[in-house]
């Protein structure tokens, strides 16, 4: 049974995730930075640096949300970044952001399903995702589609929450994510379910070596896992 945001609803996970992000989209950026104490910005920079040597020219940012990871990827000097997301609310916030920063000519925000991408095979030099893969309804299917649209020799870089293993960070993180985080999220976003779903989805996610195994299963090679900040999140890299 997969973890879903709204346990009283019968809708599939994909529909519930879209609804949740539509609900919290106006406050999403603020909440992200507050709840991670701003560390998420540093994590994104580190993840993008994993592509520095490759200098990809066409990048796909999956589960782009409001486009923060896409903006970070501009450091690679690409010709074009396409961001896709299933939440129109998040995309709308992202489009406003791109227009305000005069980035809408290089970052294109599109409605799209990560598990059924509307792009031809072997199109992108790099496929990136930040804090999105644990929201996939079918993880293997989503990763396989990312592999399909990636050019041979291209890389995927995935930033995702993971579970700290060592004392005392394991206990401190558990207390923060299960007690403090949902309370702040509820007050700011007015969506009671969104920030109880977050720690539950992290708990259910196959992180570390388990995630690398799924990447390898769908075809990626030269896979790497780089834990960040005592294992609160991790960067995963795979090549096609």
From TrEMBL:
What's its top-level EC category? transferase
Q: What is its EC number?
A: 2.1.1.163
Q: Name one GO molecular function term.
A: demethylmenaquinone methyltransferase activity
| Protein name, per record | Demethylmenaquinone methyltransferase
Family recorded in the similarity comment: Belongs to the class I-like SAM-binding methyltransferase superfamily. MenG/UbiE family.
* Keyword Transferase found: yes
Q: Which residues bind S-adenosyl-L-methionine?
A: 66, 85, 113-114, 130
Listed A to Z, the keywords are:
Menaquinone biosynthesis, Methyltransferase, S-adenosyl-L-methionine, Transferase
An example GO biological process term is: methylation
Q: Which organism is it from?
A: Algoriphagus kandeliae
Query: Catalytic activity, per the record?
Result: a 2-demethylmenaquinol + S-adenosyl-L-methionine = a menaquinol + S-adenosyl-L-homocysteine + H(+)
Its UniProt pathway annotation is:
Quinol/quinone metabolism; menaquinone biosynthesis; menaquinol from 1,4-dihydroxy-2-naphthoate: step 2/2
Task: Tell me the gene name.
Answer: ubiE
Function according to Swiss-Prot or TrEMBL:
Methyltransferase required for the conversion of demethylmenaquinol (DMKH2) to menaquinol (MKH2).
The protein's matches in InterPro entries, at most eight in alphabetical order, are given as:
SAM-dependent_MTases_sf, UbiE/COQ5_MeTrFase, UbiE/COQ5_MeTrFase_CS
Sections of the chain in a coiled coil: none
- Pfam families xref list: Ubie_methyltran
């Amino acid at each position: 049974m997969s973890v879903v945001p709204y346990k009283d609803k019968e809708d599939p996970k994909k529909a519930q995730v879209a609804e949740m992000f539509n609900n919290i989209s106006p406050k999403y950026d603020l909440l992200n930075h507050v709840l991670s104490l701003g560390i998420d910005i540093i994590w994104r920079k580190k993840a993008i640096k994993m592509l520095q040597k490759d200098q990809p020219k066409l990048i796909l940012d999956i589960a782009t949300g409001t486009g923060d990871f896409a903006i970070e990827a501009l450091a690679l000097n690409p010709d074009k970044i396409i961001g896709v997301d299933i939440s129109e609310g998040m995309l709308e916030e992202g489009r406003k952001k791109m227009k305000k920063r005069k980035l809408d000519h290089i970052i294109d925000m599109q409605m799209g399903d990560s598990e059924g991408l509307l792009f031809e095979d072997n199109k992108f030099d790099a496929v990136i995702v930040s804090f999105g893969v644990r929201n996939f309804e079918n993880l293997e299917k989503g990763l396989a589609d990312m592999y399909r649209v990636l050019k041979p020799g291209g890389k995927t870089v995935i930033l995702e929450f993971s579970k700290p293993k060592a004392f005392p960070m394991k206990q401190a993180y558990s207390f923060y994510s299960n007690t403090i985080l949902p309370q702040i999220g509820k007050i700011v976003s007015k969506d009671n379910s969104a920030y109880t779903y977050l720690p539950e989805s992290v708990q259910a996610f196959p992180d570390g070596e388990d995630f690398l195994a799924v990447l390898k299963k769908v075809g990626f090679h030269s896979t790497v896992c780089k834990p960040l900040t005592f294992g609160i999140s991790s960067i995963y890299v795979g090549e096609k």
